[in-house]
Amino acid sequence: MTKHSYAVERAGCSGAGANDYYSAEFVLDGLDLSYQFKIWEKQPKAVSVLVKENSDIMQVLKVGDTLKVKYYSIKSAYPSDCQKTAIRHITRNDQGRLKGHYLVGLEILEG
Question: Cα(101)–Cα(53) distance, rounded to whole angstroms?
Answer without folding.
Answer: 5
